[in-house]
Write a structure and sequence with these properties.
single chain; 17 helices; Amidase_dom; AS_sf; Amidase; catalytic activity
Length: about 500
């Protein structure tokens, strides 16, 4: 098969650059899709990141309504197998229970993506229902980190992270209910923005606490790709139950200017949770780098009850996931999750949360409110808070204590174990804050370590501005210019 460009050339293009070449008549959208499909063939035997390619969308990018005159001009884009639906396509949510499940219609965000010119060419892996920290169930698939195949990608946007990191596509869909965009971006060396609450719609589904906590987005390799994605895909559908943010100017324009001198707080002490010393040292190193860009940096932490916040967050997850499973059971005419088709921790979560009452949810929401107010007050004094993306090193594949195939009998103990590692991301979901993982640091075992920046609600543009300033300062060399061993442009 003759490709439109060499793999090295492909790897040097972000989505905006590929779209520019389509508009210039140098390549076609079909040629880009064919190259992405070839990239899957090269890398997927090692990473198991992509579940399915849509051969018809590869052959005919305009087939499903992709606007080839849109900003992305038919650039190939992979969809996480969870969240927005694609009419007639499989969406199996990482679960044996949902094998063969096909969507009846496109979601609102799917339509926005296609209007933006993204060619939705396939599905990427996710843990069952997006619940755990890694797409690892040998009965379904095991997705591996392209930097070192002995390690996990984390999750839940596992396959999208691996596909972007290995150079298959420049950008892919991701979702984030507690860090699921940012954590896999952080451990795979990608950019991952969790937008503010009220940026991306999940219509026609979930006009409730699900859409307050769980957010749509993407992972990419350049700030301008993420900025353009947000610009083109944001906005509510008719009848949304909450307001949606607007921006005074497109983020793709805003990022061309550096931010002013920012007040940046550093923290790795997050309630009861602490990062390992190596992660603290990397955070301090990046703090000094930001000082060198002219920002004020010091240690500070919001005055909130983080222990209470995590207890409320755990309640939210247990009750939300239980109702998600209830809805899927109802579709299939089942009274309880079949234990041969639903992973054991998800069965226990369903059992723990299915009878939750209004009093429990109201108490949870009260803590959400006080926590959000505390972070809001903090961001009156500070522009950004910076943390490592995880407290502990990336787990090896097969570390079952983080997985929903775990035999841990206690649901609360299982979540508490998650928080010890993934401490720094969930409260942004609770409070509706924007948060961005930047591939600036390294784990002690040589894998990427994202550095997370969080800002006040609605200040997504500020995070992108800071990231663009950093990107210019490092001459575009995220991950110090290194690439993972499993990569489309790898030699040998």
């Amino acid at each position: 098969m003759t490709l439109a460009m060499t793999w090295e050339e492909w790897a040097q293009h972000d989505a905006c650059a590929l779209a520019a070449r389509v508009r210039a008549g140098e390549v076609t959208a079909a040629e880009l899709a064919a190259q992405a499909a070839a990239g899957v063939a090269l890398t997927n035997p090692a990473t198991s990141a992509v579940i399915e390619l849509f051969d018809d969308a590869v052959a005919d990018p305009a087939r499903d309504g992709t606007n080839l005159d849109g900003a992305f001009a038919g650039v190939p884009f992979l969809m996480k197998d969870l969240g927005p639906t694609l009419k007639g396509r499989l969406q199996e949510m990482g679960s044996l229970l949902m094998r063969g499940n096909r969507a009846a219609s496109d979601s609102h965000l799917t339509t926005k993506m296609r209007q933006a010119g993204l060619n939705l060419v396939g599905r990427t892996t996710t843990p069952e229902f997006g619940v755990c920290s890694s797409a690892e169930n040998p009965a379904v698939y095991v997705t591996r980190n392209p930097w070192n195949l002995d390690y996990t990608t984390c999750g839940s946007s596992a396959g999208s992270a691996a596909a972007v990191a290995s150079g298959v596509v420049p950008m892919a869909h991701a979702t984030d209910g507690g860090g699921s965009i940012r954590i896999p971006a952080g451990v795979n060396g990608n950019l991952g923005l969790k937008p503010s609450r009220g940026v991306f719609s999940i219509a026609p589904y979930g006009s409730d606490l699900t859409s307050i906590v769980s957010i749509q987005g993407c992972q990419s390799r350049t700030v301008r790709d993420t900025a353009t994605f947000v610009d083109r895909c944001r906005g509510g559908a008719p009848g949304e139950f909450m307001p949606y943010w607007t921006a005074p100017e497109p983020y793709a324009t805003l990022i061309e200017r550096d931010p002013g001198r920012l007040r940046i707080a550093l923290s790795h002490e997050w309630g009861d949770y602490r990062a390992v010393p190596h992660h603290v040292a990397e955070l301090e190193r990046i703090g000094r780098f930001l000082e060198g860009l002219g920002h004020h940096v010091e240690w500070a932490l919001p005055a909130v009850d983080i222990r209470a916040a995590f207890e409320a967050q755990t309640t939210c997850y247990i009750t939300n996931f239980a109702q998600t499973i209830n809805g899927l059971l109802a579709l299939k005419g089942l009274e309880r999750p079949p234990e041969d088709r639903v992973e054991p921790m998800n069965v226990r979560i369903w059992e723990a949360g299915r009878h939750a009452g209004y009093t429990e949810r109201a108490a949870m929401q009260a803590v959400f409110n006080s926590t959000a107010r505390g972070f809001g007050a903090f961001f009156e004094e500070w522009d950004i808070i910076l943390t490592p993306i995880t407290a502990l090193p990336t787990p090896r594949v097969g570390t079952t204590e983080y997985l929903t195939i775990s035999d841990e009998p206690s649901v609360h103990a299982w979540f508490e174990n998650l928080w010890r590692n993934f401490a720094y991301t969930p409260l942004a979901n609770l409070c509706g804050l924007p948060a961005l993982s930047m591939p600036l640091a390294w784990n002690e075992h040589g894998l990427p370590l994202g550095i997370q920046a969080q800002a006040a609600q609605g200040r997504d543009g500020l995070l992108l501005q800071l990231a663009a300033q950093v990107e210019r300062a490092i001459r575009g060399q995220w991950n110090d210019g290194r690439r993972p061993g499993v990569h489309v442009a790898a030699k040998g």
